[in-house]
């Protein structure tokens, strides 16, 4: 029964070339994004911003699911309608970020491990009752001098697998997100090597924790040169390296892979996804889509800037990016 539910939800999240909207910034991260535009960092402004997003009409034509933060899943529109109900009524599947953030890993200077496993079973039951059908947990892997270490990767892979098991126990589809960060001056080749190793170890951990692979989704980074790398490869080179890495490391039974944007510009995140579909569509055993945060929302946030007068224009910007990314999932995007 639960297995059928997991498989059906995972498939629905990646059906019809749609993608996910990662609107699950923690309070700290959301405040950081607000600070860039001098938006007051209050609970009410975060509520207004999330209301702008969930009430964007037509979002469901490109977005299959929305990942929420704990504060957001409990918030409501001014008339008292919970955000989660607005999403469900629009045919958008609600999900919840479960991790409590990456904290320094003891004994591994420069590396982090994601926390939040303690008490997770109880939290999952509450979120499920509220209507969430999937979840997210982000592990952070830093490329640096001698980093990541095997111990650092293993600790994160183990936590991801433990989280995934607890999600599947109650019928929530786990999105497994091991993010290899773009920060640094490493080459694309180096990102490929590290990401391949990370994915290999993550799937080994998922296997050992008996995770149903057809009832989960993977949320990886694309294979990119570091932000400060001298050589910045072309869109086609990124697409080729990324598809190659995923084909080598992600079992075909996983129904979908949904990329994080990780600080890429909104345009590049779309162009690179489009190139993967344009060139390799016939080779992909899983649905390949987006689960962007910044690459979907940043243009809208920049327009909104906390001013109600800009709400509609911001909603248009959000829907525009969502549509373009759906087009990219069909390999038919043009800027
Ligand atoms: P970005 O697309 O902004 O990287 O956010 C995706 C996400 O969910 C990070 O955990």
UniProtKB/TrEMBL annotation:
Q: Name one Pfam family in it.
A: Glycolytic
Give one GO biological process term: glycolytic process
Its recorded reaction(s) are: beta-D-fructose 1,6-bisphosphate = D-glyceraldehyde 3-phosphate + dihydroxyacetone phosphate
Gene3D superfamilies in UniProt: Aldolase class I
Q: Which SUPFAM superfamilies match?
A: Aldolase
Q: State if Kinase is listed as a keyword.
A: no
Q: Which family does it belong to?
A: Belongs to the class I fructose-bisphosphate aldolase family.
Name under which the protein is recorded: Probable fructose-bisphosphate aldolase class 1
InterPro entries reported in the protein's UniProt record: Aldolase_TIM, FBA_I
* Entry keyword annotation includes Transit peptide: no
**What keyword terms does UniProt attach to this protein?**
Glycolysis, Lyase
Q: In which pathway does it act?
A: Carbohydrate degradation; glycolysis; D-glyceraldehyde 3-phosphate and glycerone phosphate from D-glucose: step 4/4
Listed GO molecular functions? fructose-bisphosphate aldolase activity
Please state the Enzyme Commission number of this protein.
Answer: 4.1.2.13
């Amino acid at each position: 029964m639960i297995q059928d539910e997991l498989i059906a939800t995972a498939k629905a999240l990646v059906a019809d070339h749609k993608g996910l909207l990662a609107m699950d910034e923690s309070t700290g991260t959301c405040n950081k994004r607000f600070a860039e535009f001098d938006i007051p960092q209050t609970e009410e402004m975060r509520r207004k911003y999330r209301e702008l997003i969930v009430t964007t009409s037509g979002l469901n034509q490109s977005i299959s699911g929305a990942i929420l933060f704990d504060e957001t899943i409990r918030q409501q529109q001014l008339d008292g309608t919970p955000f989660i109900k607005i999403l469900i009524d629009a045919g958008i599947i609600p999900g919840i970020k479960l991790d409590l953030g990456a904290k320094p890993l003891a004994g591994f200077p420069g590396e982090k491990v994601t926390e939040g496993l303690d008490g997770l079973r109880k939290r999952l039951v509450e979120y499920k009752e509220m209507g969430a059908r999937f979840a997210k947990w982000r592990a952070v892997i830093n490329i640096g001098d001698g980093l990541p270490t095997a111990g650092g990767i293993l600790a994160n892979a183990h936590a991801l697998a433990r989280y995934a098991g607890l999600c599947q126990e109650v019928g929530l589809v786990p999105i497994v997100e091991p993010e290899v960060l773009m920060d640094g001056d490493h080459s694309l080749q180096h990102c490929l090597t590290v990401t391949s190793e990370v994915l290999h170890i993550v799937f080994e951990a998922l296997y050992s924790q008996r995770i149903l692979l057809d009832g989960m989704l993977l949320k990886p980074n694309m294979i990119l040169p570091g932000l400060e790398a001298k050589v910045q490869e072309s869109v086609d080179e990124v697409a080729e390296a990324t598809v190659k890495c995923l084909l080598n490391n992600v079992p075909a039974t996983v129904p979908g892979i949904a990329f994080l944007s990780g600080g890429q510009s909104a345009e590049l995140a779309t162009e690179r996804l489009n190139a993967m579909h344009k060139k390799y569509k016939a080779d992909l055993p899983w649905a390949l889509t987006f689960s962007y945060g910044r690459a979907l929302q940043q243009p809208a946030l920049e327009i909104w800037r906390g001013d109600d007068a800009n709400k509609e224009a911001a909603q248009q910007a959000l829907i525009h990016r969502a549509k373009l990314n759906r087009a990219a999932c069909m390999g038919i995007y043009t800027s």
